Amino acid sequence: MDNTQSLKEFDRAVKALGYDHWKSQVFIAMFDNILGSVREPLLVLDTDLKVVKAYHAFYRTFKVDRENTEGMVIYDLGNRQWDIPKLRELLEDILPENTAFNDFEVEHHFEAIGLKIMHLNARRIYGESQQTRMILLAIEDVTEREYYKRHLEELVDKRTAELIVAKEEAKKGKERAEAALVEIQKLKDQLEAEREYLQEEIKLAYNHENIIGQSDGLNYVLYKVEQIASSDTIVLVLGETGTGKELVARAIHGLSLRKERTLVKVNCSTLPSNLIESELFGHEKGAFTGAHSRHLGRFEVADGTTLFLDEIGELPLELQPKLLRVVQDGEFERLGSSHTIKIDVRIIAATNRNLEEEVRRGRFREDLWYRLNVFPITMPPLRDRLDDIPLLVDFYIKKITKRMGKSIAVIPTSVMHALQQYHWPGNVRELENVLERAVINSSGPKLHLVDELDTPHKDLSTAHKRLETIERDHILQILEQTHWKVSGPKGAAEILGLNRSTLRARMRKLGIHKP
What we know:
Layout: H1 3-17, H2 25-35, E1 42-46, E2 51-54, H3 56-62, H4 77-80, H5 85-94, E3 101-110, E4 114-126, E5 132-141, H6 143-168, H7 174-203, H8 216-228, E6 235-238, H9 245-254, E7 264-267, H10 273-281, H11 298-301, E8 306-310, H12 320-329, E9 331-333, E10 340-342, E11 346-351, H13 355-360, H14 366-372, E12 375-378, H15 389-404, H16 413-421, H17 427-440, H18 467-481, H19 492-496, H20 500-510
Parallel strand pairs: 6-11, 6-12, 7-8, 8-11
Antiparallel strand pairs: 1-2, 1-5, 3-4, 4-5, 9-10
């Protein structure tokens, strides 16, 4: 849950509860429930600007304790370290009834934790008489993001200064000046491209959670992650859809020497074939119809960090030689350019396909396969991680109920047994979808499943079926159940926990056609 959604939910809940109860245990419990999923520090102040309640991230971030916080005027916290002019301006501006919202960005040095760059939001919470009763103050720590942005900007400024000096030198400095100009442009392009990429990433709702489980198969995966993370070796993550291959890639990047930079990713199956080359390698202005400006591809954006190529098996055959060249030599040309670009990128690729079989069928280059298959890691399917299902159920139930404001205290043995008996063709992604539907349809504290989970993997008649046959039967069953509705609400893709393009690709591969 993001800050804006949390503030709105909190505002509505306070109005519904009534101001007379705002200091009660019910209010405090409501505060923890609604705002418990927010990772940023939050404070509730009364109209005298005294702290009524603080979220635990505030204590962790600013190294203060509860005893010296609650009941104190905010300006007096930490030996008056919070007596910040811009904070005063923000709070004194929001108290009058003619304004409802304001925010500031503040740079301040704290004795215990040093320099912090904070984005401050304040919102009035009204009582029954429409008078301000409380103020909700949200603090976002943007120190690392701003530092990195300023670092690149300072580097651009430094190179610009060098260019000015070089131009003033004799003709002998001409080559140096031209090289500096190229470097400045490269840095500016990289800064802009990375900003655009980060803005796209913020909009996505992927999980940041750690990999959950303790089964032998998963422990072996984590062992291999730790084994390879510190090197720059290419890693190929294998596994069925929904097993968490991206989490493995993020774990490798998070333990690597490149972790200070953003992990850049691209899904080869979600991009049209006519755009994927531009997305990967970039293009020059006028390279094709509609190319109105230069565009940096993901390889250039990932220079100096890690690039995650998801669903690499979907990469068109005609683009595979260009990818092979990048993998082998670390160089390529943008579309519409003959200038060779050198990069330093650590590649992690992932696929749910059998690439050896794809090579035999002529749909994947053998030399690229050998280049990618340096250090394979196979993510086990959920049906081989039965010991992890209770842990995953506990994690997702807490996550879903916190987001929905519901409470599930009991998971019946029969429900857990059904979850552990099911073969999970959609793996962890399907499990999360099944649990979310169960929470929505549970009116009390006991979890109630709405999906009818059969147990085909326990049926002796299908024990020797190939995995693809089982998967095909299950997809057909869901499609017939949804009257062949593939996407949209209550469509087959949603029930299976798959991206609609992934489901269509699986249907094509398994020879499934609408009758």
